[in-house]
Design brief:
The protein is about 60% helix and about 0% strand. It has a domain at about 25-190: Serine Threonine Protein Phosphatase 5, Tetratricopeptide repeat, CATH 1.25.40. Residues about 1-15 and about 230-245 have low confidence and may be disordered. The longest helix has 24 residues, at about 10-35. With about 250 residues, the protein is mainly alpha-helical. The protein is elongated and about 95 Å long. This is Ankyrin repeat domain-containing protein 39. Keywords: ANK repeat, Repeat. It holds the Pfam family Ank_2.
Length: about 250
Amino acid sequence: MERSHSCNNRNTCCSINSNIGVSQSLVEMEFERGIWYAAQYNDLDRVKTLLKKGVSSNAEDSAGYTALHYAARNGHYKICNILLENDAAVNTQTRCGHATALHRAAMQGHSEIVELLLRFNANPNLRDVDGHTALHRALMARSISVCKLLIPCTNLSLLNSNTQNIEQLTKEKCPDILTFLATYMNKENEEPKREVRAATTNFNGQNKFYSNRAQSQSVVKNKRRERGGGGGGGTWCKKRTLDCDS
């Protein structure tokens, strides 16, 4: 049976609790004064003011989140846009969860922000701590509009930590878009075949290996004709006859 541990020195306990409270308050105060609070609560003017004062768009709070993480998750398009225009790193991942702004926007179904982040070169193939891409997160949230934005630009063969691929998760969460997904999966499967064909086909559309073999055979035949004069009485044969006579 567990015992409760009482503190014999009440002053020490109070001091420890007081220090924890002060520490939490300082962190909260820093957050509220910083760009993160303004981004989270859609205070566009405050964000602009802080950026003009030289606050970095990539500043991280105590948990490792940037203002873009907060704005993307909460659906604040204008703030996301101004942060990106002020060089916010679009692919920054959080310390613990390894989530990007794209992950956070996707899981909340913010399709306009997902589109904006992709325009600023967000990488849809980055995975969070659970192995999820932004597409995995959108499927889990059953956000069809976001899924349709991410499917064309995501590596559809990536697995999450549960070894689920995109097709399996789509069947489970968003079966209505299976046909849409299949179109891009077929394209992805066809791509390696195109590359092989391109590597083995010349500009006339002929198989390079067959064409090279045919050319080699043609060269051999031409050399034989030159040597034989086309009928067996060529220069090479005459020389050989003379050599034999001598």
